Every structure is written in structure tokens, then in C-alpha cells.
Amino acid sequence: MNTFLDYLTVLAVAALLLAPALYGALHERRTDRQLTAAAHPEPAPRRTAAGPRRAGTRSAAWRRGRVAH
Q1: Which of 5, 7, 17, 27 has a 20 to 30 Å separation from 33 between CA atoms?
Q2: Residue 53 has pLDDT above 80, yes or no
Q3: Are 67 and 61 spatial neighbours (Cβ–Cβ below 8 Å)?
Q4: How far apart are CA 21 and CA 27, in angstroms?
């Protein structure tokens, strides 16, 4: 039992030391993604006269069977 508590203590100390570093790394990645997106904006999609394309002609209510025939 003493060995288990030793391992648990080592893991707890390692987690306390690594948590701030991992949080900072994730924050930097998010910042880098935001900067990249701001530097290279995607062009807006072209709009057609008919409007956006739909995946199908049936509505979600029709697929659930809630449309009266």
C-alpha cells in the first residue's frame, strides 16, 4: 500500500507541475490559429440567384414521419 501512495504522490506532483505548462501551450496554439485566420481570411462563398443549395427536398419533419399526407 505504501508503494501505491508513493506512485500516487509522484503522479500528483507531476500533474501540478505540468498543468500550467500544458494550459499555456494550448493557449498559444489557439492564439496562433486566430492570428493565421486573421492573416489569411477565406473568401466569402458566392451566392446564386436561387439561394443556397439544399441537401434534399424533404424536410426533417417528413423524415420523422410527422407530415400528414
Answers
A1: 17
A2: no
A3: yes
A4: 10
d(CA 38, CA 48): 27
d(CA 47, CA 51): 6
Predicted TM-score (pTM) of the model is 0.47
What is the pLDDT averaged over residues 59-66? Answer: 62
pLDDT at 4 over 90: yes
What is the secondary structure of 4-57 as a DSSP string?
Answer: HHHHHHHHHHHHHHHHHHHHHHHHHHHHHHHHHHHHSPPPPPPP-TT-SPPS-S
